[in-house]
Design a protein that fits this description.
Rossmann fold, 16 helices, 2 domains, alpha/beta, 4-stranded parallel sheet
């Protein structure tokens, strides 16, 4: 595996080379201390700009770059608020469109007020919004989804500066997990109302989300969503507390040259239509799936393996967007960034929630969090079964799982076994890649 996600320091992002120029342009407006945590936040916005396009995942299913959701988590004062300006910059086209739609609604509302009661009311204009305000109700969300589907299956994008804002959008906290799962899966989540004034419809839900929050509110918000699939579908980008440097971070100035370059890339997203298979990306995803299985075996962690499934899908979607941005061409640097996105998401989840996974209450402080531990690295190059058993016991894992773990390590050729000595030895290939 390329990254060690058991450490409290984040996996280092690879150099942004050929094919990632759009990401570099966006980062040019981000303060230095927040550049790496911001990168995963770009893809839901960019994905919302693609419609009428599907990509084939390695399992042969066809997926759209919609349903992308990323939660930026950082402490107060770490400048996560600068993302709002960046989101507005990327969504200038959405804002312009939505302003014209708002004007239509205002004109309609004024006309309604002047019409006599006995006259047939003017019908509500056919409007839809690409970048709705955060104060959007669940009924309005469904109504907008209906309009977006009728206009070609467009995606609505939401940027929530606080994670609690999702409650109103979803119709209450108990409904959050339902809506977010439907969004991620591009499922139908309609509404049936008994009155003429209500919203009735069952559209395909196409939406992308970015959320900002601090560690405490994040842990409280997702406390009951860790085992129902919502947690795995959300990409997390965590920035640990930084040093007290005393330097005020410099934010972007958004010059005209920035918008000129950005608009060129956004037009590529808007113009892409049809069905595509990105074979280099799918080959990379297949390899990463094997890496995730190996990582889970080294840590003997089923939950880690389960979480990795959707981390792979989310990073794969980001790879599809990179491919479109790069004029439908793949590059090595794009693959390196996709790989980093997988590990960064899992690392962020473990840093924020490791102590809560599989437990009913969160009682540990942030300093007690830990990531998955590679148990083979904690053993000498040659060891016996009793040593692994003792290590498992120290990590609160069962003694009974020792033999099964050894079989997995032998199957994956991490170790060899000598019947003569009864000892296990790490293979040269494992040591070379460790």
């Amino acid at each position: 595996m390329k990254y060690d996600i058991s450490k409290p320091t984040a996996p280092k992002m690879p150099n942004l080379g050929k094919g990632t120029e759009c990401i570099k342009i966006l980062l040019s407006q981000v303060s230095g201390n927040m550049q790496e945590p911001m990168v995963p936040m770009f893809f839901p916005i960019l994905g919302a700009h693609i419609s009428g396009t599907e990509f084939q995942y390695p399992d042969f299913s066809w997926k759209e770059p919609t349903g992308m959701m990323t939660n930026l988590v950082a402490h107060s004062g770490d400048n996560k608020g600068q993302f709002k300006d960046l989101a507005n910059a990327i969504c200038r086209d959405f804002r312009e469109h939505d302003k014209a739609e708002e004007d239509k609604l205002l004109e309609w509302q004024k006309r309604k007020q002047t019409e006599p009661d006995n006259k047939k009311k003017t019908a509500r204009p056919d409007v839809f919004f690409r970048f709705p305000p955060t104060n959007t109700t669940n009924a309005a969300f469904i109504q907008n989804a209906l309009a977006l589907e009728a206009h070609g299956g467009l995606t609505q994008y939401f940027n929530l500066p606080e994670v609690e804002m999702a409650d109103r959008l979803c119709g209450g906290h108990k409904q959050v997990s339902v809506l977010l799962r439907n969004v991620y899966d591009r499922d139908r989540a309609g509404a049936l109302r008994a009155t003429a004034d209500g919203v009735t419809g069952n559209p395909v839900i196409r939406a992308c989300f970015t959320i900002s929050s601090n560690p405490d509110s994040t842990r409280k918000f997702y406390k009951y969503e860790l085992t129902n699939g919502t947690f795995g579908r959300m990409v997390f980008s965590y920035k640990p507390r930084g040093n007290r440097s005393g330097k005020i971070p410099r934010l972007g100035k958004y010059p005209d040259e920035f918008y000129e370059k950005l608009d060129e890339y956004l037009s590529r997203l808007d113009l892409t239509k049809g069905r595509y298979i990105i074979r280099p990306l799918n080959k990379l995803t297949d390899r990463l799936a094997q890496d995730m299985a190996s990582l889970a075996d080294l840590a003997d962690d089923d939950l880690l393996f389960e979480i990795s499934h959707r981390s792979l899908v989310s990073a794969w979607k980001a790879g599809c967007i990179l491919w479109v941005l790069n004029n439908q061409t793949w590059s090595k640097a794009m693959g390196e960034l996709v790989e980093w996105l997988v590990y960064h998401d899992i690392w962020s989840k473990m840093q924020l929630f490791a102590d809560m996974l599989g437990k009913d209450a969160f009682t540990m402080s942030e300093t007690q969090h830990r990531g998955p531990k590679n148990m083979l690295d904690s053993l000498p190059d040659t060891f016996n079964e009793a040593q692994l058993e003792a290590l498992r016991t120290s990590l609160d894992k069962s003694k009974e799982g020792t033999s099964g773990q050894l079989r997995q390590w032998l199957f994956r050729k991490f170790i060899t076994y000598s019947e003569l000595t009864g000892l296990y030895t790490k293979t040269e290939e494992y040591l070379r890649n460790a």
